[in-house]
Amino acid sequence: MNVAVGQVLELQRTFTQEDYDRCAALTGDDNPIHVDPEFCKTTRFGRTLAHGMLLYGVISGAIAGLDPGRPYQQIDQQLKFPGPTFTGEVMTIRLTVVRVERDIMELDALIFRPDGGPACEGRTTVRWLQVLS
What we know:
Elements: E1 8-14, H1 17-27, H2 32-35, H3 37-40, H4 52-63, E2 72-80, E3 90-101, E4 104-112, E5 118-128
Antiparallel strand pairs: 1-3, 2-5, 3-4, 4-5
């Protein structure tokens, strides 16, 4: 395994309304807070917000960058969404390896807003899979 405790992977992503709309189309989660900019102008946020599972999907995709090409299975996730994620803002995704035991890896997963505030806080555990010949 090419992963070590303390290893950090950081990347950035900017979401668009099209991203939110495609997520809604795929999942059926068409809550107006995600897909209706006019409705959102009447809320305390003023703009559409990312789906929580879209954020986690980005975290899941980033995990692959820790050991590229190596298949894995997510076996546990804990998530909180303390702040909104708006379109057009550069979000920072940071994964930190906190435990590695044999084929199990535990990570802190954070997504930060441009002002440094958290949009998603999580911990995930993955199992690296052995490829059978």
